[in-house]
User: Fold these one by one.
Assistant:
Number 1:
Amino acid sequence: MRAFSCPTCRRLVPFEATRCLHCGTELGLDWDRREIVALTGRHRCANRELAACNGLVDERGALCASCSRTRTRPADGDTAGLAGFPVAEAAKRRLLFELGELRLPVTGAGTAVGGLRFDLLSSAGGAGGGVVTGHADGLITLDLAETDPAHRESMRQQLHEPYRTVLGHLRHEVGHYYEAVLVPDGSPEQERTRAVFGDERADYQQAMDRHYAQGAPPDWPERFVSAYATMHPWEDWAETFAHYLHIRDALQTAAAYGVRVDGPAVPTTDSAPLRTGPVSAAPPADVNEMLDAWLPLTYALNALNRSMGAGDLYPFVLAPAVVDKLAHVDELVRAAASERLGTA
């Protein structure tokens, strides 16, 4: 995420800002300019109260570019769902902003009809048949129970996951969407992707049954970014794509705030770089440059977390096979971005 400042007094304000705490200027997010701007001459999104949205619109009562992509929200009487709705919408705004930074299409040629859409519903609120988090033809469904920290932590422990967040869920599900967009059926990209991730034509139901009956193979860390990624090539792609979004967004944030690592204060023999120098605001040239900036940050951030008695902020190890998968995703994302620039 980029850093933002108040257009009036230039004090730092967060991405979610609605008012500058220093000078009192009313603020909002201009999706066209992709900046935090003064409210003057604009209106707040119709979801300002319901979803704590800070998006701006031209017409009173309209939905912003993010909220308009939510197809279904909790019913007015769904107390549990409405409590979690602002949390999910906040994560969705961050997701959509990052997709824009990467120049990935959310609608238009090559995407599902209607583009990317969201159903944000709560199984706790009595949605008929329950709510299953997932993706289908551009429609992402999220069970708003995931916005409850106690529920989410319980599920994380039950499934032996190192990491589980609402934003992480959305990044995973949007990965399924972009596999169809970036790797069209019958394309050369599909054959290359199969060579990296495996053949997605393998029976998904059988793969899922096997995974939940037997678990991940013991050597999964040598080939996959997560245990869940071992279930099927589709899930391997989605988990890797989500991880790619984690890294790109965190690196952009580090660059925006001038975060750098100068190395530990003791001599080491580590082969990996332990200093970043200034993290560039420009996108990394390739995966190697990305990881040269990313890995030293993770060492330092994990050490800081442990100093606070918390678990690792980044509880992952990237094996060479995983780096190859990240490189493949990076190549496809860059190609899509270049194509959009060429047609702009």
Note: The chain has a mean pLDDT of 91.
Number 2:
Amino acid sequence: MQFPSNATDESRFKALNPEDRFTFECSEKCMGKCCRLITILLDPWDMEAIARHVNISGPDFLDIFCRYEFGTFSHWPFAWLKQAETGNCAFLLEDGRCSIYPVRPRNCRIYPIGRAVRFEDVEGTLRMREKLFMIEKADHCLGHEGSRAWTVKEWLEDSGAEKYFELSDAYLSLVDYATRELNSTAWLTSKTARLLMPLLFMPDTLRTKLNISEESVDHETFYRRRLNAARMILTEMAASFDFGPLAGTTVNEDTSIADRIRQLILID
């Protein structure tokens, strides 16, 4: 889960190795207490997977279940589950269990482990740095009193985290590219960032607009390719402010943005 910043400041915690061992087992006595009064940030893949699971459109999911804003400094769009922030998560059942457990968000599925990712320039090569750590124990959580022992590797494998990490990292790489290479904090505004919303959080709306069926491009491929499309749009935006690899060049406007996005998504 994504806890408030004072609880997830990963610099405070010792890094975990894959073979490190710990004990954890959810208890009936505290079931569901970790799913209330908490900030659960959502990656685009988290949101898409849940929306499909509950059979609701991306825009409706955002409207009903999420609160989102554009970062004060970055102006990048961020979304989280709004009901969980002020009370019970909207997907918490009366018995304390999760109604969307198979598609629960990345941060939920790896708790009590936290994960931080950074991109660093090492001698001209961009590298991703991952740190796994144990989240500070909440007073209400009895999981650590359980007897079941795990290695970190076993816990992550059991939770199905690998694919979620992979897809999350693709998104984080886009954010890093925008801030590092395009200097987006100097020119991106909440108004221009709204242009990214269909590419990030409304895949079904984008499919309809571009007339791209699920049969022609599967969900995961569509996700990866629309992130590439977002990268293209951001690069072109940056160029108009004289930032990024296209700075000083004229962007080809012979083809509409929608057509170029469609070409990127349909490319073999």
Note: The CA atoms of residues 110 and 159 lie 6 Å apart.
Number 3:
Amino acid sequence: SNDENKANMINCTAEVKARGAKVIAIGKENNELFDEFIYAPDGKLADAISNVIPFQLLSYFFAIELGNKPDRPRNLAKSVTVK
């Protein structure tokens, strides 16, 4: 989303790219940091909802394809970023 958190999200994206991650982004505008980009229309105040639903579906189908159980993830770890 193009809001007050955009700069932080771009910084986080650069951090995970530096660690070798592949980045799939969903939003209104592409960025050179994204390996894959899925366009989502402008949802105005509902941007958070319109952007997170495709990620939930991707995660679900990736888990199924990999033979994992989406409702019972194993080795679930907490990830914390400190500013």
Note: The helical segments are 6-18, 47-65.
